[in-house]
């Protein structure tokens, strides 16, 4: 009787601490061939490469990973980073993490054991950052190409899921690459099934976090000591931002607590940026031009329970359509202005000052903002680096 010959190929990918073996019947002759993966490097001292379609890579929280290049989570790939994992970038602007549309990125820490992304040299801009691309709607086209990584983002899937970030700290990122700057965390067209909660952006060059369209919701965000905006959004973002605590750099540099626009080339592009921003504290410095909140170029929004302290202008609203949306409409409520020179400023698209109607905003002297007025909120203590 002729024997059947079966070749089994075992790919030595790390999936947690397990692997899968396919068996055959006893009358089959078996040849086993082992293939070493050519994708992501598993050596913690040389962490880089691709997480490919169908591959799940889970890091070991007991090891320190040296990010020596680019990690790309390809469409269909999954990168899992458990609580307590530390990733330290070593290659400057050439160290960063990209997540393509259809890739999954899970960085899930705990309050006592956050996931840490840092640099071997503790200075702003010493590595790239984290860039995630999703399939949710944007207003710069049906799809677009990310500033960093040249990845496609955007689409029609409002409920797209790119994974989750929970109890994560990102620090010293924001390097410049080919004339373009990273942020600590860049979210391109991210859908509302993606979880972004309890994320701290500390001492990054450029913005702590920037949102490019999409429908993602964010909560329990700390953004402190970044060289530009603590948080910025554009390109049609429609989501919720809840419990946001930011501080300007101690030397007074850095533009705003939050900057929001609709579209840089078309104030009325659709879908229009229209987030709900609630329970937020923006602490700044009055040197030079500084704005706790700056909304312009067609963005809409709802603001509630806001604390702005130590800014030249508390809330600066510019461009005709944005001014018309807010002036006299009570879409800014329960605001505490502390040590702020000008509470609210309105300017037309032509730059002319627009009188502020007294029903544009309401004040609340005991507004809690992110939870504790101008002081660190209880939910941020410890995991974020704040005490």
TrEMBL record:
Keywords: Signal. Residues 1-23 form the signal peptide. The keyword Signal applies. The keyword Signal applies. InterPro entries: Pectin_lyase_fold/virulence. This is Right handed beta helix region.
């Amino acid at each position: 009787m002729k024997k059947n010959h079966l070749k089994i190929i075992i790919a030595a990918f790390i999936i947690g601490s397990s692997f899968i073996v396919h068996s055959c019947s006893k009358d089959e002759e078996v040849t086993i061939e082992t293939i070493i993966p050519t994708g992501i490097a598993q050596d913690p001292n040389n962490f880089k490469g691709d997480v490919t379609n169908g591959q799940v890579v889970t890091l070991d929280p007991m090891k320190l990973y040296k990010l020596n290049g680019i990690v790309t989570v390809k469409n269909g790939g999954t990168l899992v980073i458990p609580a307590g994992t530390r990733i330290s970038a070593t290659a400057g602007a050439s160290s960063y993490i990209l997540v393509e549309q259809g890739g999954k990125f899970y960085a899930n820490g705990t309050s006592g054991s956050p996931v840490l992304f840092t640099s071997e040299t503790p200075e702003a801009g010493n590595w790239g950052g984290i860039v995630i691309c999703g399939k949710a709607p944007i207003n710069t086209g049906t799809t677009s190409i990310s500033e960093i990584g040249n990845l496609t983002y955007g689409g029609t899937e409002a409920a797209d899921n790119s994974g989750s970030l929970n109890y994560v700290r990102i620090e010293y990122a924001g390097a410049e690459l080919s004339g373009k700057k990273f942020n600590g965390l860049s979210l391109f067209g991210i859908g509302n099934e993606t979880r972004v909660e309890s994320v701290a952006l500390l001492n990054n060059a450029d913005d702590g976090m920037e949102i490019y369209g999409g429908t993602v919701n964010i909560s329990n965000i700390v953004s402190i000591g970044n060289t530009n905006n603590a948080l910025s959004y554009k390109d049609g973002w429609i989501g919720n931002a809840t419990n946001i605590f930011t501080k300007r750099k101690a030397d007074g540099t850095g533009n705003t607590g939050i900057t929001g626009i609709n579209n840089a080339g078309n104030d009325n592009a659709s879908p229009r940026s229209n987030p709900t921003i609630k329970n937020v504290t923006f602490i700044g410095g009055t040197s030079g031009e500084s704005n706790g909140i700056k909304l312009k170029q067609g963005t809409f929004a709802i603001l509630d329970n806001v604390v702005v302290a130590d800014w030249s202008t508390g809330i600066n609203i510019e461009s005709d359509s944005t001014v018309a949306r807010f002036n006299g409409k009570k879409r800014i409520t329960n605001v505490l202005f502390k040590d702020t020179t000008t509470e609210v400023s309105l300017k037309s698209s032509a730059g002319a000052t627009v009188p502020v109607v007294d029903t544009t905003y309401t004040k609340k002297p005991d507004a809690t903002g992110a939870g504790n007025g101008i002081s660190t909120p209880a939910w941020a203590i410890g995991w974020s680096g704040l005490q």
